[in-house]
Amino acid sequence: MLSWIGWIATAMFGVSYLCKRPAALRTVQALAALLWIVYGVIIHAVPVVAANVIVAGMAVFSMFTRSESPSSDRSATLAPLESATQRTLS
Fold it and tell me: Which of 8, 28, 37, 89 is least enclosed, having the fewest CB within 10 Å?
């Protein structure tokens, strides 16, 4: 009867891996974990609740601690390579 909550949470976790932006992935995973927490409380499954409190907490924490600037990350990573290539071609 209430197993649909668990199935929706499972589907959300699966869909989260299709997210292209890290922030979207973490948001969907946090929401799925919250559904799993609700489901775990309803069925009195402490391990389900505990595991998903950790997952939701890490997802929310990482939303606020990770920068999402792929262009700045890319330029920092490629700058030494680009300058080495320019020296080689000169």
Answer: 89
Report the distance separating Cα 21 and Cα 45, nearest Å. Answer: 32
| Beta carbons within 8 Å of 67's beta carbon, 6+ residues apart | 73
pTM: 0.67
Show Cβ contacts of residue 40 under 8 Å, excluding neighbours closer than 6 positions: 46, 47, 48, 49, 52
pLDDT score of 57: 93
Name, in order, each residue with C-beta under 8 angstroms of 73's C-beta and a sequence gap of 6 or more: 67
As a whole number of angstroms, the distance between CA 70 and CA 50 comes to 33
Question: Which 3 state secondary structure label does DSSP give 4?
Answer: helix
**Cα 46 versus chain centre, distance:** 23
Residue pair 48/40 in contact by the 8 Å Cβ criterion: yes
